[in-house]
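We were asked to recover a plausible sequence for a given structure. The inputs and outputs are reproduced exactly as logged, with field labels preserved.

PROBLEM: sequence recovery
POSITIONS: 436
GIVEN STRUCTURE:
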């Protein structure tokens, strides 16, 4: 199972051509003022020093991180070398860059392990779980996350695949990372083994909801029909036909084959590219969507933004929501609104305003911290995945510490781990693509 095995998918939200993003393209994070005193941030050390973890014995003060030392930065640069990025910066669509190689179809073992432990120890009793997938596509990751967050074994990815394909009678668009055929989140129930009960009978589930937000009309219809057919809409899978940006209104979106990736707003820019039909879709800022559809004021445990090229618009549209988010995934890109936005500014915003520590998520236990370990070539625009944990939330202490531990273990591998053109691929190469 993995939460963030994904490659470029749907162009979801932009209104730059609509005339409302002139502000953004000319000013970037206009109006954003970082804290005057960085020492006031939760979990932040000062100066160079070994990366380490500190939390108060009495009052939780956040999982603390230190700025990477020069030696650590050198190790990162050896493992994520800049050469391919700099050589191919004028043709970023080739994805020939170390941090693009490294984060293609990554596995998020740190978040999986966190919820697996919760279910094994039953420490999630009387808790709730809220997940959001902005750009739900075929719903495989959303369904798996609902299974992970709720501990409900009846939420089964194999059943979802059957429902989405109408029992195998239909095919959906190609999945680059093959989410449909990857193992789903594993649930263990030791009580069931001893009491001769089925897992479904004995598994304690958490009151959960996962919002599967999809703008493509045909894909939304398949998602909605599948959720109703399996009656998972009554078990927390909320499918919404909408686009998410930083403004409210409507926006044209193509009506292509259900589940098709790499089809989005750019195909409805007035040129009728690819001969697609476009329909108007309701558009909400992230904050507006949460206010309208998430009927509680508690945490957003899991937020995934997979809207190729326009993830930054979703982030900028959710200043109130991000304060509630415990774990965040998004895509960095060379297209869409990312063309006018530096990753460095986004990482700084997430760090200084929302206490997120962000990483390049890899596979085989490899992960590289971006926050306070910045290298200038990261601002070169290549498609890649970013995973962030809210270090200031006590509930996420184990995740934050696990991610940092994996980062240090990755560095210990030294120059034996190199993400260059000769070693690219990893999970991306092993995930055989195909129609669903």
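RECOVERED SEQUENCE:
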């Amino acid at each position: 199972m993995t939460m963030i095995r994904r490659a470029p998918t749907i162009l979801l939200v932009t209104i730059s051509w609509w005339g409302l993003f002139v502000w953004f393209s000319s000013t970037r994070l206009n109006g954003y003022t970082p804290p005057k005193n960085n020492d006031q941030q939760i979990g932040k050390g000062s100066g160079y020093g070994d990366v380490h973890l500190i939390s108060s014995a009495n009052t939780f003060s956040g999982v603390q991180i230190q700025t990477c030392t020069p030696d650590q930065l050198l190790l990162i640069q050896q493992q994520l070398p800049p050469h391919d990025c700099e050589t191919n910066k004028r043709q970023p669509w080739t994805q020939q860059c170390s941090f693009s190689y490294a984060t293609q179809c990554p596995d998020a073992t740190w978040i999986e392990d966190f919820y697996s432990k919760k279910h094994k120890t039953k420490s999630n009793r009387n808790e709730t779980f809220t997940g959001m997938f902005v750009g739900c596509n075929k719903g495989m990751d959303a369904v798996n996350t609902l299974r992970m967050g709720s501990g409900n074994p009846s939420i089964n990815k194999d059943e979802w695949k059957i429902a989405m394909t109408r029992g195998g009678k239909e095919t959906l668009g190609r999945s680059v990372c093959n989410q449909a055929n990857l193992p789903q989140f594993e649930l263990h129930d030791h009580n069931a083994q001893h009491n001769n009960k089925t897992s479904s009978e004995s598994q304690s589930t958490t009151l959960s909801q996962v919002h599967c937000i999809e703008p493509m009309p045909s894909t939304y219809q398949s998602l909605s029909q599948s959720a109703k057919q399996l009656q998972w809409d009554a078990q927390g899978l909320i499918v919404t036909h909408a686009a998410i940006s930083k403004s409210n209104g409507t926006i044209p979106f193509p009506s292509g084959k259900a589940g098709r990736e790499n089809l989005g707003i750019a195909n409805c820019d007035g040129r009728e590219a690819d001969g697609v039909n476009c329909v108007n879709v309701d558009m909400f800022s992230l904050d507006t969507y949460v206010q309208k559809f998430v009927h509680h004021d508690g945490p957003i445990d899991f937020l995934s933004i997979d809207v190729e090229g326009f993830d930054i618009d979703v982030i900028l549209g959710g200043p109130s929501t991000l304060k509630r988010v415990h774990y965040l995934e998004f895509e960095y890109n060379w297209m869409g609104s990312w063309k006018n936005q530096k990753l460095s500014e986004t990482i700084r915003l997430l760090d200084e305003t929302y206490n997120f520590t962000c990483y390049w998520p890899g596979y085989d236990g490899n992960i590289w911290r971006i926050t306070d370990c910045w290298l200038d070539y990261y601002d070169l625009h290549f498609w890649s995945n970013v995973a962030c944990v809210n270090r200031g939330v006590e509930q996420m202490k184990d995740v934050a510490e696990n991610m940092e531990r994996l980062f240090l273990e990755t560095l210990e591998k030294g120059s034996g781990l190199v993400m260059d053109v000769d070693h690219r691929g990893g999970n991306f190469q092993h995930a055989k693509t195909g129609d669903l």
